[in-house]
Amino acid sequence: MNRLFALLTLVFVFASPVFAAGRDPAELARRIDRHLEEAWKRERIQPAAKTDDAEFLRRVSLDLTGRVPTMSVVRSFLADKTADKREKLIDRLVSQPGYAAHFSRVWRQRWLPQSAAQFEELWPEFEEWLRSQLRGNVSYDRMVRSLLVASGGPMAGRSDRVFLQANEYKPANLAGGTARLFLGLNLDCAQCHNHPFARWTKEQFWEFAAFFADPRTEGKRALRIALPDSKKEVAARFVDGGEPKWAGEPNATTGRAVLADWLVSPKNSYFAKNAVNRVWAGLFGLGLVEPIDDLSGEIKPSHPELLNDLADAFIASGFDLQYLIRALVRSRAYQLTSVGSAADLPPSMFARFIPRSMSGDQLFDSVVLAAGLETREANRAAFLARFGQSEHPAEEGRTILQSLTLMNGKTLTDATSLKERGALAAIADAPFLDTAGRIDALFLAALARSPSPGELKRFVAFVDAGGASRDPRRALASVFWALLNSHEFAVIH
In a 10 Å sphere around its CB, with 0-12 CB exposed, 13-18 middle and 19+ buried, how is residue 475 labelled? Predict the structure, then answer.
């Protein structure tokens, strides 16, 4: 009996996440809700209703693992009547390999500049490094520090050097990218002249760039850099005006190491606010500060107290990304529906969920998973070539070329082929399913929900009549093609 009790205790401990003091995502989620509810009350806003289970399951699966849920997961989740099933689902998704795989792509796309296409051959190695960091829940500050302090020179198999190489080791490129990506400050316009709209000056830009200059060149032995088209040199200085300190003579990595120490410090509010603002924008479709690279103070956050609270909590957690993400998706705002009477409310009030387009990776992986096919990386590369990257997928539309890729490309052709050994063929040939059961199965696979009575009636009639070809099996394939090409499938809502 004692052995059985001990075994059950171990199972409970390891099956249920135990959060350290100050890292309880449920408590932070409640604070998020209080901030937003106070704003809604102040503005006399009635928020949208809560999502139903199907809508929530699909949304959180796409956001945390980058793909739609499987049919079996949908059936199991919808049948589950326990009160805390959403919280358990979140914890389960974050612990799955799909979480690290998805966010390794997300952070790679954010951290490598668009001009780095010539370094595409380095992306797999960089994503593998990111996956290992995310699987181990390495803190955000440690990851960023690794990117900045990695030793210079050739790659030599060191994945954390990709950020330096993608910026060509140029101080100007690295200064602009570091300020924008890790501080939320757009200094680029001050590279050649004083910023026309913000407070940044040309001298400030190059003082920041001096951290990335090699002090060993020309016998300088100091963190200094020459201003372009000038004989003047400036010394390294932080954007808040502080002066760096270091021991001994600087070497090739001294500037980056000193900058990294200042950048990831809990005392540097830019770093934490930028991180939570970008994670928030990725999950809600809109940042608390917009544009997301303008935390200079010129633009007031839509919810300043909420941004400050999230930044403080992120710092207190030791820059724990999993903790932050768990809290955001537990919040009431994240779990509001995207439809209904709240559709005309200002997006910045977050009183309804903002629909946004899937990324190319999410769309490809979701089509492949819904169709029950094996992932073919060659097909992925061809598919993704049609889709760009954006930190604001809510603002994205589909180009004509992208729409044609979805409708006529090899991925959709394979997914809707009755000759492939995938979900469609299995559903079409299942002897235990009638037409209504087959339609329901296709809806669950593609949209993570059952059809409405009206949809079911129309599709059953279409399939039973055989469609244009008078062939019920081909008509069923047409239904699946229509679902995978629908706006509802391509959008996180």
Answer: buried
Cα angle 308, 311, 312; round to 5: 85
Peptide bond into 266 cis (omega under 30): no
Do 224 and 235 meet the contact criterion of CB atoms below 8 Å apart?
A: yes
Return the percentage of the chain with pLDDT > 70, whole number.
Answer: 85
pLDDT in tens, 445-491: 999 999 999 999 999 999 999 988 899 999 999 999 999 999 999 99
Question: In which element (H, E) is residue 428 found?
Answer: helix 423-429
User: 8 pLDDT exceeds 60?
Assistant: no
Q: How far is CA 116 from CA 112, 119, 123, 277, 450, in A?
A: 6, 5, 10, 24, 43
Digit-coded pLDDT (tens) for 44-95: 999 999 999 999 999 999 999 999 999 999 999 999 999 999 999 999 999 9
pTM of the full structure = 0.90
Asked whether 107 and 182 are in contact (CB, 8 A), the reply is no
Tell me if 414 sits within 8 A of 425, measured CB to CB: no
Phi-psi region of 44 (alpha: psi -120 to 50; beta: other; left: phi over 0): left
21-24 contacts, C-beta under 8 A, 24 or more apart: 22/313, 22/316, 22/317, 23/317, 23/320, 23/323
Structural domain boundaries of the chain? 99-263, 357-492
pLDDT at 5 over 50: no
Residue entry with tokens 């090739």: 252
Residues with Cβ < 8 Å from 243, sequence gap 6 or more?
A: 235, 237
Q: Which two tokens stand for residue 388?
A: 């760009």
Q: Exposed, middle or buried by CB within 10 Å (0-12, 13-18, 19+), for 292?
A: buried
pLDDT for the residue numbered 192: 59
Distance CA 251, CA 47 (A): 56
Check whether 123 has a pLDDT greater than 50. Answer: yes
